[in-house]
Design a protein that fits this description.
This protein is an alpha+beta fold and 347 residues long. It has 8 helices and 16 strands. The strands form 3 sheets. A 7-stranded antiparallel β-sheet has the order 1-6-15-8-9-10-11, with no helix packed on it.
Amino acid sequence: MSATLDPGKDVTEDDAAIAVTVVELAQAMNIDVYAAALKRHQHSNAGSLRDGISNYLITEAKKDPHRHAQALWDMSLAAAPESISNLLPALGDLLGQPDLLPDTAKDEFRSLILRSAEALGAEQSEQRGAIFAATLELGDDPFTQRVMQSLGPGSTDMEGLPPGWSASDIGDVEVAGSTEFNEGAFVIRGAGDNFWGSKDGAHMVWRKAEGNVTFRTKLRNIEAVHDFTKAGISFRRSLDAGSPHASLLASPGNEEGYRFVLGTRDEFDGSSNNDGSTYLRLPKWIQLRRLGEEVIAEVSSDGEEWKELARRSIDLGEEFYLGLVVSARRSGKLAEATIEVPLDALF
C-alpha cells in the first residue's frame, strides 16, 4: 500500500472529500483498516486519498467479483433510502452482469428505486435526477410513471442533458449556442439573426416526438440582446433553418410585459406568421398542444388553468422535433433564457 492510503493520514485541501460511494463500497467489502480514515473524510472533496482508495477497491473487486457484487447488493438492500441514489451507478453495472446477482435482483432493484423516490424531498435535485435516470434505463414505462408519482413535484438535476434530449444550433450563427440543465430548468444561450421570415437562426434543445403531444414549461426569464430576442417552445418538422414549425415565443414588449405570440411557418422556406399577440409578465407558464394537424398555444399563471392564445394547422409530419428555442436577433451575440420543465414533461 502506498503512503497515500495510510489510515492515519489527514487529508489536505487538495484531498478535499471522500465520496459517499467510496465509503459505502469500502464498508461493504469490510475493509476495516480504512474505516476510521473513510469515516473521518467522507464529506471531503476528491483528491489523492480518495483516488488511491478507489483504485484499491477496484483492484480488489476484480480479484473476487462475486464477493464484491454480493457485498454491495446486501449493503444496498439495508441502506437508508436517501443513500440509495449514490449507489445506483454501481448497481446498474451489476445488473448488466446477472450471473453475479440473485434471480430476484431486478425486482429488488425496482423496490430500491421506489423506496428512495418516496424518501427524497423536493429540494434534493441531484438525488432525484439520479433516481429518475436509473429508472429510464429500465425501459419500463408503467414503472417510470410510478416513480414520477413517488417523486412528486420538485426540481430535478442531471449530469449533462436529460436522457433523450440533444441541443443544436439552427441556421447560420456566428456564435455557437449552448444548453445546461440545472435544478429542473434548461438554461439556453442562443445567437441567430432572427426567428422569422423564410429561415430561422437560433439554438434549440430538443427531443423527438410523434402523435398528439402536450408540452408545458415555465418561462422564468429572458436575458435579451435585442428588442426582438425570442425564447419559448417550438415544434419543428426538422432542424433545417427553413423548416415548418409552430412556436410559442416571448420577446421584450412594453411596460405591460413580454409579447407572446404563436409563430408559424406552413411550408419549407415559406413565409412566417404570428397569431394571438398578447403582453404578459414573467415568469409565465406556456404550453403547446398538438392535436392531429392542429397546434394550440396556451398560457397560464399557475400551470393548472390554461388560456388559449392561438391555434394553427401545421403539417409537422409523423415524427417531429419538440423543444425550447432562443434566438438573439443578433447573430454575433448570445441571448439567454431559463425555462423550467416539470419532470413528467421531460419524457
